[in-house]
Amino acid sequence: MSDAIEGRLKELGIVLPQAAAPAANYVPYVISGNLLYLSGQLPMENGRLAITGLLGRDVDVAGGQRAAELCAMNILAQAKAALGGDLGRIKRIIKLNGFVASVPEFVEQHLVINGASNLLANILGDTGKHARAAVGMAALPLNAAVEIDAIMEIA
Fold first, then answer.
1. What is the pLDDT of residues 121-142, one digit of tens each?
2. In this structure, are residues 43 and 145 in contact, taking their beta carbons and an 8 Å threshold?
3. pTM above the 0.90 mark?
């Protein structure tokens, strides 16, 4: 399965980044039994925060979806680090919690988080389909436009 996932990443032209180190007093992941809990990931690209600001003012829906895709890539990078490099150990993505920095009038958080949901389903197939929340926030750390955390069932 890991080879299939790596092949799908290559086919989609996605190179996962190195898993980012925590920016504060927390760990990037916790494994408890057969569950992998991943800390919130920001839209980091090439070692820097790629998309900042508020949806509905500074960032449009397409930009928010790109931010969510980057968060999903960073989620997979953290999972890969947690699982000793073997993404094939992912049995199911159980849940994503998506946080979208947005103006009060913005009501398309669900469309923004689709960027992550679609990417994970495209890479992992049914294993990547998940329950989720898409929540509007007044602000996120470092002025990030999107932050997403995840819970996965693992082998």
1. 999 999 999 999 999 999 999 9
2. yes
3. yes
Closest CA to 143 of 19, 23, 49: 49
DSSP per residue, 108-139 = -HHHHHHHHHHHHHHHHGGGG--EEEEEEES-
- The first and second tokens of residue 37, run together, are 């809990």
Other beta carbons within 10 angstroms of residue 151's beta carbon come to 16
Please state, in angstroms and as integers, the Cα–Cα distance from residue 69 to each residue in 23, 25, 30, 53, following that order.
Answer: 20, 25, 22, 16
Residue 43 CA to residue 29 CA, distance in Å, equals 17
Domains located in the chain, CATH noted:
2-14+38-154 (3.30.1330.40)
In contact, 19 and 28? CB cutoff 8 Å: yes
